[in-house]
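ok, trying the design again with the full structure, not the truncated one.
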């Protein structure tokens, strides 16, 4: 079976700079989902969201924009906007677990509101020809929520539903619930994609064995922690390329230059890079020490010297 690998959107991480650099140096991702567009009640799209999905910033990439909303008019507004840019599909985020989103009845906080989901899907499908796909959790409070919601989604021509196999209030703590995901597979005719804890080739192979009917796999934090992972999955190998550190160094340099140009002041640049290294450290032999050393680098000069040492040591 051919496996399609997708990059799950992570706010603050998988923007167009990351997507381009990952694709250039490592590859393996078939489709990238852009981090969500959020309107906050105003029908205005922030410049940072606009920049992220501009076709000229995503040349050679397959990108699907995403929206987070609990309002049909916002959905239609963003649908029209992305269609004008040439996109045919808009992904609806019902997965975000963070309290600042869920307490507004959005992201995974919306899963239990079947009436609202029905109303939005109805209006969007009757007033727009955008292709709708969805990204969800198993629920916010419990896994029963998604089982009540899937039949509603099924009554619309939704292209697919990517399910992160956790509930919202778990955030990213605790394991994924594979039995609950299996229950979704058995209880819907919808095309399902799997998301959650694909962090190694071995893990991927285990998931593939567990869910033989799934052929689309979404990699979220695993991609940031190990940008080599998708191509290793595609080649079914756990061996890193012999020029691993050279590739990582070029990838890091590209990202670092891009963020240095786009962010103002060393504080912002360092903060951005520190966040990324919380993930990047995973591919080094002593992740804890690497993360600690990066954290200690409080100036641009220190940061650059520290990165050089880390990469040299491999």
């Amino acid at each position: 079976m051919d496996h399609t690998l997708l990059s799950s959107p992570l706010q603050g991480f998988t923007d167009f700079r990351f997507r381009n650099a990952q694709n250039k140096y490592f590859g393996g991702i078939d489709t990238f989902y852009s981090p969500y567009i959020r309107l906050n009640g105003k029908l205005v799209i922030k410049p940072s969201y606009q920049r992220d999905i501009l076709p000229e910033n995503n040349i050679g990439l397959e990108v699907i924009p995403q929206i987070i909303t609990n309002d049909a008019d916002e959905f239609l507004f963003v649908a029209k906007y992305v269609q004008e840019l040439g996109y045919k599909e808009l992904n609806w985020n019902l997965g975000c677990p963070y309290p600042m989103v869920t307490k507004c009845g959005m992201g995974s906080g919306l899963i239990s509101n079947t009436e609202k989901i029905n109303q939005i899907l109805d209006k969007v499908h009757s007033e727009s020809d955008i292709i709708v796909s969805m990204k969800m959790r198993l629920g916010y409070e419990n896994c029963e929520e998604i089982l009540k919601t899937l039949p509603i989604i099924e009554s619309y021509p939704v292209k697919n539903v990517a399910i992160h196999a956790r509930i919202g209030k778990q955030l990213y703590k605790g394991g994924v619930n594979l039995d609950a995901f299996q229950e979704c597979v058995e209880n819907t005719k919808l095309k399902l994609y799997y998301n959650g804890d694909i962090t190694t080739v071995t893990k991927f192979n285990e998931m593939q064995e567990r869910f033989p009917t799934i052929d689309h796999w979404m990699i979220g934090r695993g991609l940031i922690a190990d940008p080599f992972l998708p191509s290793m999955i595609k080649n079914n190998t756990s061996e890193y390329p012999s020029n691993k550190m050279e590739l990582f160094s070029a990838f890091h340099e590209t990202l670092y230059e891009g963020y240095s140009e786009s962010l103002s002041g060393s504080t912002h640049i360092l903060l951005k890079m520190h966040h990324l290294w919380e993930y990047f450290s995973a591919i080094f032999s002593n992740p804890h020490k690497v993360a600690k050393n990066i954290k200690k680098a409080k100036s641009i000069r220190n940061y650059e010297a520290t990165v050089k040492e880390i990469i040299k040591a491999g």
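Keeping the full-length input from now on. The chain has a mean pLDDT of 97.
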